[in-house]
Structures are given as structure tokens and as C-alpha cells.
Specification:
The chain has 455 residues and is α+β, with helices and mostly antiparallel strands. It has 4 domains: 57-66 and 383-452, conserved putative lor/sdh protein from methanococcus maripaludis s2 fold (Beta Barrel), CATH 2.40.420; 77-89 and 291-377, Beta Barrel (Elongation Factor Tu (Ef-tu), domain 3), CATH 2.40.30; 92-115 and 251-290, OB fold (Dihydrolipoamide Acetyltransferase, E2P) (Beta Barrel); 129-246, Helix Hairpins (Orthogonal Bundle). Helices cover 35% and strands 27% of the residues. The chain has helices spanning 2-14, 19-22, 28-54, 124-149, 153-186, 191-220, 224-250; strands at residues 57-63, 77-87, 90-93, 99-104, 111-112, 117-121, 252-254, 259-264, 271-272, 287-290, 295-302, 314-319, 327-334, 344-351, 363-369, 384-386, 396-401, 404-409, 411-416, 419-424, 431-434, 446-452. The strands form 6 sheets. Strands 2-11-14-13-12-15 form a 6-stranded antiparallel beta barrel. A hairpin with a 7-residue loop joins strand 12 and strand 13. Helix 4 packs antiparallel against helix 7 and helix 5 (153-186) runs antiparallel to helix 6 (191-220). The termini are far apart.
Length: 455
């Protein structure tokens, strides 16, 4: 029994937890492995961060240079601006009537005189309406002449003869009535015969009175009111005749002014309407023309530079097509309102003596001159022109220096197809990033892809 009890106690003791072993420190190798793993993960993340920061963005740059003032340049130039040549008055010639084109007498570039026929429409319907109106006028004119002339002597004589005949018949009926009345009193004829004789006499008496009144009217002629009514109808018919003549004449579409044909909009067989309906279907106008002796340069002047200009200010106009030809100009129009989005004011410069070299929509440059009193104090500015694609948000560019991109704010004087003119914020010899990527930021590392020729 003692042996069995000891075995039972040993079994119970083997099932107890040894709390003293849990408080003892674990093996050192486990701790070392955990710390090594954490450090490795941190190093990998740090390497990825620096790797992404050090990755360079490939960009394209261009080196700029400030153009030197040309020899003999006018020292009185206060502002240079670029724009386009436009016709002062572009006229789209329209039709007053609807119809199909039967003939065209001009081509693009032709010079035309005022009143010259440009297009002729089919006019058969308008000629028929004119003929009808002329017939109506002729009919009413004849009727009015007849009424104004009064009755003819033959008509008066016929009316008088009718009265005399009726009076003779009336006298015969009176004699018959008296005879019948005596016979009835003698009892020879019946009362019915007397009533018939009386009726014939009364009817003839009324006829005589009617013929006498008609005879008086024939002698007097038509009433003045009737003549006035016919005269009014005649005036209305003459108005319709004039309208028909105008519509027929409108089938000949003429040049409203002398000038040059800029566009021929219709072909033979096409339908012309009085309203513009788009490129397809009926045409709203037949041709466009302008007087090329009345040309302007349309400019958008930056609001910061607008104060340098004034009404009727002089300028020298040149074109990209013929840079050696210069034209005198003067400010002719200034827009009463500014463009909020562009921050510009539209100005139009009239070219005083244009020639055949100038064409609408040509690129043009205007050098505005100072007043004679201040010309000596107004040195000409040399502007740097860069591609417009290098400008972000209309005021920011990126420069390339020492492998990094640097953001800079510049002042743009004007923008044209040649590029953007920079008046402040850019120096000679600096490299400008053109077409900067949308995600490019100040200080980013860059890698040059290619370099264009210096501007």
C-alpha cells in the first residue's frame, strides 16, 4: 500500500506547472533574429524611398538668348506686340429672295466694283408675278380714266330716249285706263278689265320715274367717292407692281461695295435662302468680300502694358512673310471692355497705306512709337521669346540647372504663333524646360533628353 501511494504522488507532481521556469529568460538567439529582421525591413524601405527620390525625370530643354536691338532701331519704341491682319469690314453678301443659283460670275480673289452682279438666281416665277401686277395696274388705270371722263354723249342720248319711250307708253296706258273706266261705268266690260288697265298704268309710271333718275345720273357721271375708291385700288396695285419689280431685281445679287472676293460660298444649282442654315442644305450667303485697302492689325495687349498706349498712337507694322517691308499705322479702335480670362485688351491698328503684299489673317508685329517729346527717353526693350508650351498656368516656367528643375514666375507681354514674349523673369543663356511633365515639381531631379538650338 505504501508503494502504490508513492507512485500516485509522483504522478500528481508530474502534472504540476513549474512557475519558476517561466520567469527565467529565454534563449538569446531568438532575440537576435527578431531584431535582425526588423532592421532588414527598415533598411529595405529606406532604400526604396531614396531610390524613388533619386530617379531623374527625362525632360527637353532649350537655351534662350536675348535678341540684340537691330541696327538703326527706333529708340522711341515703347511696346512691341504681335497679332493678325484683318479686314476692317468683311461683308458676307446675302440674298433678299430665295431661289436656285443659275449663274456665278466671280471667283475667289477677283476684284469687283460696287453694283457688279456676282450671282444670278432663277427668275421665272418673279417675272410671272411682275406681269400679273402690270396687268392689274393697267386695268385699274383704264377704269379710273373712264370714271373721270364721265358719261359719253351717246350714253346721255340713249338714257333720254329711254325716258321719252317710257313716257309715250305711259300716256297710252293712261288713255286706255280712262276708256276702260267709262266702259265699266256703262256696264259693257267687267271690273277686272279696269283693274288690269290700272295696274299697267301704275307699272309704267314707276318705270318712267326710274328711267328719269338714271338719266340724271348719266348726265352727272360717277360719284367722287367711287372715283376715290378706284384711285385707292390703283395705288395699291402700283405698290404691288413695285414690289414685284424689286423681287425680280433681287434675283441679281450685286456687290455692295468695291473690294476683293474672299470666299465663294455657292455653286450653280444650289439653293439660296434668306437665313443662314449651316454648311449643308440651303446657303445663307453667296460670297464674302472686303476692301483690302482698309486693313487693320488686331492685337491682344496685356493689361500690364496697356497703360503705355493711347488713342491715335502711331506704330510701325511688319509681317513675318515680308519682314523688310514696313507700314505706318495708327491705333484706330480700342475695345471698351477687357478680356477677363486672357487679362488683355483688344486694340486694332489701322494700316495707313496697305499694298498688295498684305493679306487678311497674316501674322503681323506692331512697334508702337512714343510721342516725339518722350522718344529719346524710351529705349527699346529686347524681349526673349520662348515656346508657349514651356509656360504653365500662363505665368510659370521651369529652368534646368545642376540636374534639377527650378520653378520660376515670369511676366508675359504677349503671345503669338511664334511663342510667348517674356519681359521679366528670364535671363540670357538660361535653359528652359519645354513641355514640362504635369507632375514636375520644384527641385525634382531631371535628365536631359535633348537640346534644341538656342533661341
Amino acid at each position: 500500500m505504501v508503494v502504490e501511494t508513492n507512485k500516485y504522488d509522483e504522478a500528481l507532481n508530474s502534472l504540476k506547472i513549474d512557475r519558476s521556469r517561466r520567469d527565467r529568460p529565454g534563449p538569446r538567439w531568438a532575440t537576435v533574429w527578431i531584431l535582425t529582421g526588423v532592421a532588414g525591413i527598415a533598411a529595405a524601405l529606406l532604400w526604396l524611398f531614396f531610390q524613388s527620390r533619386s530617379q531623374a525625370i527625362e525632360v527637353e530643354t532649350i537655351r534662350v538668348s536675348a535678341p540684340a536691338a537691330p541696327a538703326g532701331a527706333d529708340p522711341g519704341v515703347v511696346l512691341n506686340a504681335t497679332g493678325y491682319i484683318v479686314a476692317h469690314h468683311r461683308i458676307e453678301v446675302t440674298s433678299k429672295v430665295m431661289g436656285k443659283v443659275a449663274w456665278i460670275g466671280v471667283e475667289k480673289g477677283d476684284k469687283v466694283r460696287r453694283g457688279q452682279v456676282l450671282v444670278r438666281l432663277e427668275d421665272q416665277e418673279f417675272r410671272a408675278q411682275l406681269q400679273q401686277a402690270r396687268g392689274n395696274v393697267a386695268n385699274l388705270e383704264a377704269k379710273l380714266r373712264e370714271m373721270q371722263a364721265g358719261s359719253r354723249p351717246e350714253e346721255i342720248a340713249a338714257a333720254r330716249a329711254n325716258v321719252a319711250q317710257a313716257e309715250a307708253d305711259l300716256e297710252n296706258y293712261r288713255i286706255t285706263l280712262e276708256r276702260t273706266r267709262g266702259l265699266v261705268a256703262a256696264g259693257i266690260v267687267s271690273r277686272q278689265n279696269l283693274d288690269d288697265a290700272q295696274a299697267r298704268y301704275d307699272g309704267q309710271k314707276a318705270k318712267v320715274e326710274a328711267l328719269q333718275k338714271n338719266y340724271e345720273l348719266v348726265k352727272l357721271g360717277p360719284r367722287i367717292e367711287e372715283i376715290d375708291a378706284v384711285r385707292g385700288q390703283l395705288e395699291q396695285a402700283r405698290g404691288q407692281l413695285a414690289y414685284a419689280e424689286t423681287m425680280l431685281d433681287a434675283t441679281l445679287i450685286r456687290a455692295p461695295v468695291s473690294g476683293t472676293i474672299l470666299e465663294r460660298a455657292v455653286e450653280v444649282g444650289e439653293f439660296v435662302t434668306t437665313n443662314f442654315v449651316g454648311d449643308r442644305g440651303a446657303k445663307g450667303y453667296v460670297a464674302a468680300l472686303a476692301d483690302l485697302n482698309d486693313l487693320q492689325v488686331e492685337l491682344d495687349i496685356n493689361q500690364d502694358d496697356f497703360a503705355r498706349l493711347g488713342p491715335r498712337q502711331r506704330g510701325i507694322v511688319t509681317t513675318d512673310a515680308y519682314p523688310d517691308r514696313k507700314y505706318d499705322g495708327v491705333i484706330d479702335e480700342i475695345s471698351p471692355a477687357a478680356d477677363r480670362q486672357k487679362a488683355t485688351v483688344q486694340v486694332k491698328v489701322k494700316i495707313l497705306k496697305p499694298d498688295e503684299y498684305l493679306r487678311p489673317e497674316m501674322n503681323a508685329r506692331v512697334a508702337f512709337l512714343a510721342d516725339l517729346k518722350t522718344a529719346a527717353d524710351a529705349p527699346q526693350q529686347a524681349l526673349i521669346v520662348i515656346p508657349s508650351s514651356a509656360v504653365r498656368d500662363g505665368k510659370t516656367i521651369f529652368l534646368a540647372r545642376d540636374g534639377r528643375a527650378f520653378e520660376r514666375t515670369v511676366k508675359i507681354r504677349s503671345t503669338s504663333p511664334r511663342g510667348s514674349e517674356i519681359s521679366e523673369g528670364l535671363a540670357d543663356g538660361e535653359e528652359v524646360i519645354i513641355n514640362p511633365p504635369p507632375d514636375l515639381k520644384n527641385g525634382d531631379r531631371i535628365k536631359l533628353k535633348a537640346k534644341s538650338a538656342a533661341l
